[in-house]
Design brief:
The structure holds 2 protein chains of 2 kinds. Chain A is mainly α. Chain A has 9 helices and no strands. Classes of the chains: A mainly alpha, B alpha+beta. The interface between A and B is medium-sized, with 34 and 32 residues.
Chain lengths: 219, 356
């Protein structure tokens, strides 16, 4: 069970680093808060349809800036150190799991910000939080993997954005549909298909990430 | 010649596609009917405009029906042939229709022994003054549609909105398939790079992806022109809610592969560039596959295959079209791989020059 142990140890390290710096989470929180404030001041009243779109756009940008740093902060000597010490699968798994947790916190905070300032448009809580959960999982798998690629370049933030936006499009389209249903913007009985598609996408991209990451790691 | 036969084959197939696809005529069809809306109780005279029809050359008189449904149809009272492409048809519309709708649409059906049968769905809208289905049943003079002729000779189907633009199938759709095959080729080359660490495989992936991108752009442009001609200028090709799977996947694939090239530009070192872009190429290709399931669920689109629009398969792609459409896919794919091979050699030569 070396893999699980290594993964947990690496996650703990990320958590401790974050706790000491409190840099990522506070930065994201400030970003979300100021964006929602702008939305709140420019719209007199946020209609459910706009609420739905704006929520996911804000969350998309918040999560991309939360995740882009995951590999940049690891400088190359430290990466070499991990390389000699651990299994590459443990590295990507720990980063992905850590980012899933981070994104869930970020998405709950975004939702809280929206509910506080723009009003809570959610009608079906369980469906909406299921969408948040599946969305956080899917976005963090793809973003983490792309961050591993983009982290090797100099302008990683730009590269991260242009590489990952088209890739998360299937997830995002399904998420917006799912949450439109949770906001009662549309009624659809086949919503379980959307959940299955989302879970399928999450599993597919996780599998690809685990399969391909060792090739990135080798250099 | 042993290694180059497929290039010649591609060119021959494409020449065949161009010639047959552009020169074969369309089946006769009905373009327009005037007036297109009448009231009950009148004797209406419709001027019918045919396309590729030969009304004057028919040995038996031209016959016409207004079809209500599979069982019920009205026969024409009088038919006057004006020219090969123009007819005047009179119908006695009864005072009441056997339906409980105020406005009923009728399909116009023409038949003669040269052109065979041609159909215009919803050609005539009839408005009832009062709705009395029982009296309509009594007044209805049914004349079943029988003994339709078949058009002889090789033709493409006539579709009402598409008309001559149906030939774009051999370009727009075939280019899209060729693009897909080129991208798959690129992914296979990327996998081979990761397996063997052979830089040539990476150059091949780059070349195939570039040509695939060009084909995708051409497919998008032909699609935009086609959509403007058939669905009107108001059609927004960039609106994902109106876009279908193929169009959406092309758009997203364009973004993904543009990012692929930006990624390649970001690295100087050839090995590093090759490794990272190969990994991204594979991941991106797999990540886009779910779009096939996601996009059709968004909403009905105008594109073939959804919301009652004609699509590949069924009666819309008839056997004549298949004889050209499938070769067109093969021809474009072969041409694409030929282009990719030439570009691959160019990249290799460029590398050699750069190394001095």
């Amino acid at each position: 069970m070396g893999l699980i142990k290594e993964t947990l140890a690496l996650m703990r390290k990320d958590l401790v680093l974050e706790w000491r710096g409190k840099y990522a989470l506070s930065g994201i929180l400030l970003y979300v808060f100021s964006t929602v404030f702008i939305i709140y001041t420019s719209f007199d009243e946020v209609e459910p349809k706009a609420w739905n779109t704006l929520f996911w756009v804000v969350l998309l940008f918040a999560s991309i800036s939360a995740i882009v740093k995951s590999f940049v902060q690891e400088n190359s000597p430290r990466q070499l150190y991990y390389y000699s010490l651990t299994n590459p699968i443990a590295v990507i798994l720990s980063k992905t799991l850590y980012n899933i947790g981070l994104l869930m916190v970020v998405s709950l905070l975004t939702w809280a910000c929206f509910a506080l300032m723009a009003g809570n448009a959610v009608k079906d809580n369980s469906q909406f939080f299921l969408a948040l959960f599946l969305g956080s999982v899917g976005l963090s798998i793809t973003f983490t993997f792309v961050a591993a690629i983009a982290g090797k370049a100099d302008h990683s933030a730009t590269l991260q954005a242009i590489m990952s936006f088209p890739l998360v499009l299937p997830i995002l389209l399904t998420l917006i549909r799912l949450s439109a249903n949770a906001l009662r913007l549309e009624q659809d009985s086949s919503i379980s298909d959307d959940i299955a598609i989302l879970a399928g996408i999450d599993l597919l991209s996780l599998g690809m990430a685990l399969l391909l990451f060792p090739f990135l790691w080798r250099e | 010649m042993k290694n180059h036969w497929w290039k010649a084959l591609g060119v021959i197939i494409l020449l065949y596609t161009f010639t047959a696809g552009m020169l074969l005529p369309l089946k006769p069809g009905i373009v327009a009917v005037n007036p297109s809306a009448v009231r009950t109780g009148d004797t209406v005279t419709l001027s019918v405009q045919g396309y590729n029809t030969f009304f004057t050359q028919s040995k038996t008189p031209v016959r016409a029906w207004l079809k209500l449904d599979e069982q019920r149809a009205l026969a024409a009272k009088d038919i006057e042939v004006i020219s090969d492409n123009a007819l005047r048809v009179s119908f006695d519309i009864p005072a009441h229709l056997p339906v409980s709708r105020r406005v009923q649409d009728f399909t116009l059906l023409l038949d003669n022994d040269v052109d065979g049968a041609s159909v215009l769905p919803s050609a005539l809208l009839v408005t009832q003054d009062s709705i009395q289905p029982e009296r309509g049943e009594a007044l209805w003079a049914n004349s079943p549609i029988t003994d339709l002729h078949e058009k002889s000779g090789i033709t493409f189907p006539f579709r009402n909105i598409l008309a001559e633009t149906i030939r774009n199938t051999y370009f727009h759709v075939a280019l899209w398939f060729a693009m897909l095959f080129l991208f798959i080729g690129g992914v296979i080359s990327s996998v081979r790079y990761l397996a063997n660490n052979d830089l040539n495989a990476d150059y091949r992936a780059q070349a195939q992806t570039t040509v695939g991108l060009i084909f995708g752009l051409l497919g998008l442009i032909t699609g935009i022109i086609w959509a403007r001609n058939t669905w009107g200028a108001g059609y927004k090709f960039w609106n994902l809610r109106e876009v279908d799977v193929k169009q959406a996947m092309t758009m997203v694939a364009l973004f993904v592969y543009l990012a692929y090239f930006v990624l390649r530009m970001a690295f100087e070192d050839a090995e590093r560039k090759a490794r990272l872009s190969a990994v991204y190429n594979i991941f991106a290709f797999v990540a886009l596959i779910p779009l096939i399931y996601v996009v059709p669920r968004l909403t009905d689109s105008l594109h073939p295959g959804s919301g009652g629009n004609p699509a590949l398969g069924g009666e819309d792609l008839d056997n004549t079209m298949r004889m050209i459409f499938y070769p067109a896919i093969i021809g474009w794919t072969l041409l694409g791989f030929w282009m990719a091979q030439l570009y691959y050699r160019l990249i290799k030569a460029q590398m050699r020059v750069d190394e001095g």
